Amino acid sequence: MPFINSKVSVKLDSAKKEELKSALGKIIETIPGKSEAWLMVGFEDNYSLYFKGNNSAESAFIDVKLFGSASRETYNNLTSKICSLFNESLNIPKDRIYVTYEEVENWGYNGSNF
Prior knowledge:
It contains two helices and six strands, in the order E-H-E-E-H-E-E-E. The chain is an alpha/beta fold. The N and C termini lie close together (about 10 Å).
């Protein structure tokens, strides 16, 4: 039950969203037991982001919420893959991308909690 939400300073068309969603579906498999089958993805594009005091270059903030937990090594691998994806797909410099993780103990779905 992961959720990946991205705020990016670039405009995304439907094709680019589909491309990113599919790639994130593969990347989430970096976390043992997780797959695209339960992944929810959100996009907030054309977002006004200031980083290091300015908005002179494209930026991204990616928030990953996860039911359960993962190892630090897994998160490092995930961060590397996410930064590469947003760099290669949207030309956002890796040094202007933040990725955060939140491990959620209580996760509701379909009228009850896991």
